[in-house]
Amino acid sequence: MKKSIVIVVLTTLLVGCSSRSPYFPKQMEEQVIELVRFDNDLMNVQAATAKEDIAILYEQYPSFMPTYVEDILGISRYDTTYLAEALPAFLNDTIYGFKQTNAYEKIIFADVTGIEQELNNAFTRIHYLYPEWEIPTVYLFVSGFNASLLFVEDGIAVGADMYLGSDYEYYNRVVYEYQKQTMRKECIAADVVSAYLFRHIAYTSTKSRLLDNMIYRGKVLFILSQIFDYLPNYEVMGYSEAQWKWCEKHERDIWNLMMDKRDLFKTETLVLTSYLNDGPFTAEISQESPGRLGTWVGWQIVASYMRHHPEVSLQQLAAEADAEQILQMSYYKP
Fold first, then answer.
1. Nearest to 142, CA basis, from 92, 83, 181
2. Are the C-beta atoms of residues 217 and 276 closer than 8 Å to each other?
3. Contact 214, 298 (CB under 8 A)
4. In this predicted model, what pLDDT tens digit does every residue of 139-161 receive, in sequence order?
5. For 110-138, b where at least 16 C-beta lie within 10 A, e where not — what string?
6. Which residues contact 256 (CB under 8 A, 6 or more apart)?
7. With contact defined as beta carbons under 8 Å apart, do 140 and 112 qualify?
8. pLDDT digits (tens, 9 = 90+) for 58-100
9. 294-297: Cβ within 8 A, 24+ apart
10. Could you give the CA distance from residue 42 to residue 46 in angstroms, rounded to a whole number?
11. Any bridge partners for residue 158, and if so which?
């Protein structure tokens, strides 16, 4: 399932954030992104004037509207007659709770200045690291519980109805319990930047072992943690505080078990998905564990590597393709 994003404005003024990261100077060239409220314009479509309202959306959003129609609604962009019937019905559906959810989304996202500030700060730092990377446009939309983040032609789109709060009642119908942790408005900025980094930082290893995948993900998470250096690490990871503390408490046992089973050098899909994919737990370790333990351990290895090698820049870290060298030079011994 695809995902979406909003257009944001880049600035270095972030929610009282002064950089604690040693990888960024105090002064950086501010970047400005536009936060595009496609969600508000979409919800203005009325059944009585649907054809005219849809024509306006196509005119206002010549790139994003066709993508939304095809990828979220599953309707041909050229079938405007059917769209004029289906879109109002979709927006006003009460059986699946879309109408109620859209109304709630308007309340939760009435003020998006916090998201804008976080994204401004984050992309200012990204621009400092990689000035050649194109700053994305970020869109906000409602998806009918169909998508969280979606890459589009000119940027990223965010399904705001997937960020209404972990306790939002309709989520019980559409997601598993373990997925609710990051379904909060506060998670949007980190999710957007994480997706952006994974898209731009290439997986350069020629091997597909668990170790290579762990180190790759660990590098991205380490960079993400420096960009969001004001957030606790468990929020960057998408864990609860209790899940993070469980990992810290059992870190040595996790590592010893991985080494005893020689999992680091395995390439089997089942092993990789168990360690790297989201889930209620990491089956290769324990049913009490959180999911994605391979990524968590990869991050700890990379963090150890960077502590021992302060001369290495974030760009150099991202470009390093030798996972075994990073492991060896990390002196990682939990």
1. 92
2. yes
3. yes
4. 999 999 999 999 999 899 999 99
5. eebeebbbbbbbbbbbbbbbeeeeebbbb
6. none
7. yes
8. 999 999 999 999 999 999 999 999 999 999 999 999 999 999 9
9. 294/210, 294/213, 294/214, 294/217, 295/214, 295/217, 295/218, 295/221, 295/237, 296/237, 296/239, 296/247, 297/214, 297/218, 297/251, 297/254, 297/255, 297/258
10. 9
11. 140, 149
Tokens of residue 61, six digits: 């959003």
Question: What 3 state SS string does the chain have?
Answer: CCCCCCCCCCCCCCCCCCCCCCCCCCCCCCCCCCEECHHHHHCCCCHHHHHHHHHHHHHHCCCHHHHHHHHHCCCCCCCHHHHHHHHHHHHCCCCCCHHHHHHHHHHHCCCCHHHHHHHHHHHHHHHHHCCCCCCCEEEEECCCCCCCEEEECCEEEEEHHHCCCCCCCCHHHHCCHHHHHHCCHHHHHHHHHHHHHHHHCCCCCCCCCHHHHHHHHHHHHHHHHHHCCCCCHHHHHCCCHHHHHHHHHCHHHHHHHHHHCCHHHCCCHHHHHHHHCCCCCECCCECCCCCCHHHHHHHHHHHHHHHHCCCCCHHHHHHCCCHHHHHHHHCCCC
Backbone φ, ψ for residue 139 (5° rounding)? -110, 145
CB-based contacts of 251, cutoff 8 Å, min separation 6: 297, 300, 334
> What is d(CA 102, CA 142) in angstroms, rounded to the nearest whole number?
7
Place of tokens 């957030």: 231
**Structure confidence at residue 19 (pLDDT):** 60
Name the residue type at position 235.
Answer: E
144 close to 89: Cβ distance less than 8 angstroms: no
